[in-house]
Amino acid sequence: MNPYGPSVTRLIDEFEALPGIGRKSAERLANYILTSSRNEALGLAEAIRAVKDAVRACGECHNLTEKPVCDICSDERRDHQVICVVEQPKDMNALEASGAFPGVYHVLQGRIAPLEGIGPEQLTIEALLRRIRQGGVRELVMATNPTLEGDGTALYISNLLANDPVRITRLARGIASGSVLEFANKEMLADALKGRQSF
User: Fold this and answer.
1) Do 81 and 169 lie in a common domain?
2) Distance of CA 159 to the CA centre of its chain
3) Is 60 exceeded by the pLDDT of residue 8?
4) Mean confidence (pLDDT) of the chain
5) How far are the Cα atoms of 44, 47, 69, 135, 140 from residue 166, in angstroms, in the given order?
6) pTM of this structure
């Protein structure tokens, strides 16, 4: 027996469809909406509507923005000859928070994952190739996630650019500063050994 009416059940179902939200969390969120003021609840609904209406992909890098071109792409102080390729806007935000990258980005909007039915044509790879082949790009930093799909995507793009005059690099991997070797897994240790540098 369902203790809720159809509208509350629908709200719970919608919350449960969000990533990381289980049934109990969805019920808590629905109960919060029910007990909040009408203005608070409609404010949330209006914020969701406004985001869906206003946010679009940047015409250059495919990051999320409310302008035709995002602030990073339109910043003349950035090095537009170095492009960092990431899977999602959240990955770009993480790199940008470090304050260590002076170049610009390209957001693929995913990664090649054949088992999930995601091929290169669903990503912004063609737009990336156009940016590079228009000239002026000297380095492409592959910052896809260190997963089978992320590495496969980086390899696919690298192969497409094999005959182009652009340097292709990838983010360093391995042991994090301040960590202890005995707690590192074998993949981290292997990456650290392969990517070793002069001291």
Assistant:
1) yes
2) 22
3) yes
4) 91
5) 45, 42, 24, 9, 7
6) 0.80
76 contacts 67 by C-beta, under 8 angstroms: no
Strand runs (DSSP E) across 51-192, as ranges? Answer: 56-57, 64-65, 79-86, 103-107, 139-142, 167-170
- Give the angle 41-8-6 at the CA atoms, nearest 5°: 140
**At CB < 8 A and 24+ separation, what contacts does 61-70 make?**
61/104, 61/105, 61/106, 61/107, 62/106, 62/107, 62/108, 62/109, 62/124, 62/127, 63/89, 63/92, 63/105, 63/107, 64/89
Span 77-91, pLDDT tens digits: 999 999 999 999 999
Q: Starting at the earlier edge strand, list the strands of the sheet with 139-142.
A: 103-107, 79-86, 139-142, 167-170
What is the number of domains present in the chain?
A: 2
Structure token digits, residue 153: 């995507």
| Residue 24 belongs to domain with CATH number | 1.10.8.420
User: Could you tell me the residue range of the domain that residue 130 belongs to?
Assistant: 77-173
Alpha-carbon Rg for the chain in angstroms: 22
